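[recover] target loaded
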C-alpha cells in the first residue's frame, strides 16, 4: 500500500491523506503528494537534487519517471518538478524538472524536459516531446515531437480533464479496499 518510501539526506517524502502508492513504486527524498493522489506500479519519483510536489487528486500511472535538476551557479534554483491538482500522467511518462498546471492530461510515453511550463487545462498527446523551457498555453491540445499546438480543446475535452483525475481517485479507492481485503 505504501510503496518503497525512502529518505534522502534526512528528508522524508510527505504523503497526504488517502494517498495510494503501489508497493512497487519508489519515492525518494523531498517529494510531497497531496491528498487522494495515486502512484501506480513501477513509478520512480526521486526528489534528491531538488524537490517534487504533486497536487491533490493527481495520478502518476505505471512506469513513469519523475526527476529534477540540481541548483548551479548558472541556474540558482535548478529545476524542481511541480505538478498541479487533478493531473493525469499517463503510462510511461518522463517528467524532468518541469511545471505542470492543474487539470492537465499527459499522454502515454510523453517526455517533458527541464523548465517547460504546461499551463492549466492542456492535453499532451501520447509520445510527445516537450523541449526545455517551452510554454504550452492553457486550453490547447499539443502533439508531436517536438510538440506543436494542434487546436483548442473543445468543451467535452475540458470537462473530461477533471473527470479523468476523479476516475483515478475512484480506482485507487477500489485498490485500497482490495488490498485491505486480502
Ligand atoms: C492527442 C489525442 C488526444 C488526439 O485526440 P484526437 O481527438 O484524435 O485529435 P485530432 O482528431 O484533433 O487529431 C489531431 C491530429 O493529430 C494526430 N495525432 C493524434 N494523436 C497524436 C499523437 N499522440 N501524436 C501525434 N499526432 C497525433 C492525428 O492523427 C491528427 O492528425 P491529422 O490532423 O494529420 O489527421 C490522442 O490521440 C492522445 O494521444 N491521447 C492520449 C491518451 C493517453 O495517453 N491517456 C493517458 C493514459 S490513460
Amino acid at each position: 500500500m505504501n510503496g518503497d518510501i525512502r529518505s534522502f539526506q534526512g528528508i522524508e517524502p510527505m504523503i497526504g491523506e488517502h494517498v495510494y502508492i503501489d508497493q512497487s513504486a519508489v519515492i525518494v527524498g523531498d517529494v510531497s503528494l497531496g491528498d487522494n493522489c495515486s502512484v501506480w506500479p513501477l513509478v520512480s519519483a526521486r526528489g534528491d537534487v531538488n524537490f517534487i510536489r504533486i497536487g491533490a487528486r493527481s495520478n502518476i500511472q505505471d512506469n513513469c519517471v519523475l526527476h529534477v535538476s540540481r541548483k548551479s551557479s548558472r541556474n540558482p534554483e535548478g529545476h524542481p518538478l511541480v505538478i498541479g491538482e487533478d493531473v493525469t500522467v499517463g503510462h510511461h511518462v518522463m517528467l524532468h524538472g518541469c511545471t505542470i498546471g492543474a487539470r492537465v492530461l499527459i499522454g502515454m510515453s510523453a517526455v517533458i524536459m527541464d523548465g517547460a511550463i504546461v499551463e492549466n487545462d492542456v492535453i499532451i498527446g501520447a509520445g510527445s516531446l516537450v523541449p526545455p523551457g517551452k510554454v504550452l498555453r492553457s486550453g490547447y491540445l499539443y502533439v508531436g515531437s517536438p510538440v506543436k499546438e494542434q487546436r483548442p480543446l473543445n468543451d467535452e475535452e475540458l470537462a473530461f480533464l477533471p473527470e479523468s483525475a476523479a476516475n483515478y481517485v475512484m480506482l485507487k479507492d477500489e485498490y485500497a479496499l482490495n488490498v485491505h481485503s486480502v
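[recover] notes: The domain at 2-181 is CATH 2.160.10.10 (UDP N-Acetylglucosamine Acyltransferase; domain 1).
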